[in-house]
Amino acid sequence: MTNNSFTTEAEELGKLRDEIDSVDQQIQQLVNQRAQCAQKVADVKEHFSKPGESVVFYRPEREAQVLRRVMERNQGPLPAEGVARLFREIMSQCLALEEPMKIAYLGPEGTFTQQAALKHFGHAVECQGQGSIEDVFREVEAGGANFGVVPVENSTEGVITHTLDSFVGSNLNICGEVALRIHHHFLLKEALLKKGAVANPTKVYSHAQSLAQCRQWLDANWPGIERIAVSSNAEAARRAQEEEGAAAIASEAAAELYNLNIATANIEDMPDNTTRFLIIGKQTTEISGDDKTSLLVASKNKPGALYHLLAPFHEEGVSLTRIETRPSKSGTWNYIFFIDLEGHQNEEKVAKAMALVQQQCTDFKCLGSYPKAVL
Ligand SMILES: C=C(O[C@@H]1C=C(C(=O)O)C=C[C@H]1O)C(=O)O
Asked: Which residue range(s) make up the domain with 328?
């Protein structure tokens, strides 16, 4: 590159690096100033709390607003989402000063649910891997964790029924959602890679959902391989490391954790393969300005039941984003519908539609209103 105003390379770089050092110093000072404000927020919350009342430090609606504003005002050259991710981490550190948070997730370590937990809360939280979706619910209900993270639907494979069913018997609220692009990789031990065709793996471990999301790729590339479903992709990676002749389909995080090689990357059949996760907790969330509400309603199996159930949403102009049907396990709940809608339960038209729906059904539960995923 030529530029007449440049002196020597060393001198130009020296000046720029001095400037970067000075900017870094200011950023650091400002970030700590922000953290002091967050500490004062905690003091104010404590001061005004009623005796015996537990203070709510984490405010998902406020965090969503902060992140949305960061993205709106961003002028570049950094991309808006990249800057929002930095602010996600800054807020995570600030909140940890107010209250160190424990997050239960569907483990073990290295699962996509753990990635979703960190994407949503940032890295200044203590993540606790649980053995099952039910255990995540139990841990949050018992107070061992402040919040839980569970998968709820995948764009290729559909709904995760375990999660929906867990809400039926639980008093927990949905406090947020996270969407994660899911990339699956075909993982092998180094030894298997080196031996090549002779030592081809005879079996592949993965979670049933992931096997399904890579079905066509497996049919085309490893038609004879035995496909074995296990409890998680991390467990699949662990087995591929321990057992002879075994491969795994799992994430990059699992590959790193269990020291496996990515033999083929991004083998998911759908290029936009995305999983949506829910944040569950005991607290309710206020209006953020761009929210969703999830309902669980049950109705008798009679003609036109679903039509009548949904009519109030149409009449009040409330958009539905998803509806899932599950068979009821008890006699009273013949059909259970999980309904996601746009808006917050404290907004007038949503409240009105919900009240009308409640009159139509045999059972009704609002699982929570929460900010739409920002990142
Ligand atoms: C500072 C607050 O508490 C927490 C920390 C936030 C932050 O760092 O911006 C935002 C919301 C809360 O989760 C607050 O309530 O404003």
From this structure: 284-375
